[in-house]
Amino acid sequence: MKMLEGKIIKAVGGFFYISHNGKTIPAKVRKKLSYNNTEWTVGDNIGFCFDEYKKAVIETFTKRKNILTRPSVANVDVAVIVIATVPQPDFVLVDKIILNCYIQNIQPLLVINKCDILQDNFINSVKAEYNDAVSRVLTVSAETGYNLESLKEALQGKTSVFCGQSAVGKTSLLNHFTQKAQRTGEISQKSGRGKYTTRHSQIFEAEKDTYIVDTPGFSLLELDGIKSSQLNLYYSDMVELQSKCKYHMCTHTTEPDCFVKSCVADGSFNKNRYERYLAIFEELKEAEKNKF
């Protein structure tokens, strides 16, 4: 039987759908197959063949580049972190997603959606905080189509996951690139938060070798594998300043003669971003304390 290559784009109840040459093929997995005793998930690159009944059967798998657990998706190249002014941005969540990108070897791309209704001061403040933290900051409008071509170019030939709060426009952007009609989110009048519209992780093929993942609801990625004492190493702009601190392994929190803290004081390091760094640092310390 001829072995073919594909990518799992949807998994429902132990049944899988494979993308192969622009077609979607339903398939089952050989019972003997497993990936380090973990479940198969969307994004997995696999080898499959057709049995004597012309049914697709997954026979082999390719080693994963990475795996996200919340949402469950493998082999991600780019994380498109979407924010807007409504609902109110949760920048701690944004920072956590960026940190996970560095852990998982994923390129973080920050997208400010709904720019047709945004004020310049909001856009400028976000760029000031994140230009050095992500590969790129793009302003777009899913409503008017503004600058979507630049976003399309950034995603070409890659597997990208759209993440962030509900109702910031993730599904509207996905609809634009994949032309797959999905329900878009609304803002809850009571809470001011988005209502969940996506029920499971699924990959859509925008064009050949370009895949986009739509993820369910509020995509919170846990900070697994980071110690509080190493958190600063995931902030590239802090690493550049590290050599000017008094202590070689300065965490930029309570140490005296910390150059990063002096930069925060004189305004050359963004104060808001630093304060969120301190909050995440304390969260990690508390988690470490509760382990024992």
In short:
With 292 residues, the protein is an alpha/beta fold. Helices cover 26% and strands 25% of the residues. The longest helix is centred in the C-terminal third of the chain and has 20 residues.
Annotate the secondary structure layout.
Elements (H helix, E strand, L loop, with lengths): L3 E9 L2 E6 L2 E7 L15 E6 L5 E6 L5 E3 L2 E3 L3 E6 L7 H14 L2 E6 L7 H11 L5 E4 L8 H8 L3 E5 L6 H9 L23 E6 L2 E5 L21 H6 L17 H8 L4 H20 L2
Parallel strand pairs: 3-5, 8-9, 8-11, 9-10, 11-13
Antiparallel strand pairs: 1-2, 1-4, 2-3, 4-5, 6-7, 12-13
Helix pairs in contact: 1-7
Fraction of residues in helices?
A: 25-40%
Mean pLDDT: 84
Low-confidence stretches: 181-199
N- to C-terminal distance: 53 Å
Tell me about the largest β-sheet: 6 strands, mixed
- Apparent shape: globular
Question: Per DSSP, what share of the residues sits in E-state strands of 2 or more residues?
Answer: 15-25%
* Run of helices and strands: EEEEEEEEHEHEHEHEEHHH
Number of strands: 13
* Strand order within the widest beta sheet: 10-9-8-11-13-12
How would you explain this protein's 3D organization?
- With 292 residues, this protein is of the alpha/beta class.
- The protein is built from 7 helices and 13 strands.
- It has helices at residues 91-104, 120-130, 148-155, 170-178, 236-241, 259-266, 271-290, and strands at residues 4-12, 15-20, 23-29, 45-50, 56-61, 67-69, 72-74, 78-83, 107-112, 136-139, 159-163, 202-207, 210-214.
- A 6-stranded mixed beta sheet has the order 10-9-8-11-13-12, sandwiched between helices. A 5-stranded mixed barrel has the order 1-2-3-5-4. Strands 6-7 form a two-stranded antiparallel sheet.
- Helix 1 packs across helix 7 (271-290).
